[in-house]
Please model this.
Amino acid sequence: MNKIKLPHGIRIGHAHDAYTGVTCILTDRAVGGVSVRGGAPGTRETDMLRAEKSQGFVDAVVLSGGSAFGLEASCGVSEYLFKRGVGFNAGDKIVPLVAQAILFDLITPGEYHYPDKAMGYEAAANAEKNELIFGNVGAGRGATVSKILGNQSASKSGIGAATLEFNDAFVTAVIAVNALGDVYDHKSGKLLTGAKLPNGATMGAIDCLTNGMFAAKAREAMQKSAGTNTTIGCIMTNVKLDKTHVNKLADVAHDGLALSIRPVHTDADGDTLFALSRGEAKLDYNILAALAVEATALAVENAIKEGGIG
Model:
């Protein structure tokens, strides 16, 4: 994985247990945007970030496991920020503006393990250390991929990152990959993960759906897995963007998911990407968008390379 860079003032921290986790991105009042492409999202404060809304900044972006239960984690991040006087000034009150997206990693039979308020607070506190570690940590702790034949055939995933630079401008993608589909090396076309077959081999999702031996099981698994996956992440740049272009950056970055994840944006996934702009660098938006797509694809692949443990 290449050296990861963050815009000045933005910090990242993780917290997790044996099952699930939280990744907190403290933004230092960055301009924020969001794009939700999956059919089964779980989010908080995404409407606030849309281009036509009046609020121009966001104080934190939270990525976590736990499905809808995991939305509690952002309350811990809000408390952490409130205690430090960070937030929107509303008269004599301070209201931290915290956006969040969740992925589904509730796969332990008969048990519920999800990030709570305390874990969210811990992730926010850890962000002050700004230790840029990725893999089987934070929101990627319980992430898996290649679930076309069910969880028993899945591969371990994680949270990955990648940075691309152009002169003094750069863009960084941080992606937690918990997809129904498989992950490919988008440059070579090589399958990095696939459904594990009884004979020890792996097979891509599309092949499973069209192979007579596995097609029925694959279609049944797809129906049962609705809403139980999701790839989430955040695209960050030091290029100065207005809210409209930050939202466009979040939108176009989904092309990076499509390069590396197949299939993607299904009704079984809640794929959501945030974008943040903090800095004064200048770069043609079309160049920045192209870099964001590539960084997103690389971050997805790095999530497998760094977080996959068989």
Summary: Residues 70 and 115 are 5 Å apart (CA to CA). The longest helix spans residues 285-307. Helices lie at 46-49, 73-83, 117-127, 205-210, 215-224, 243-260, 285-307.
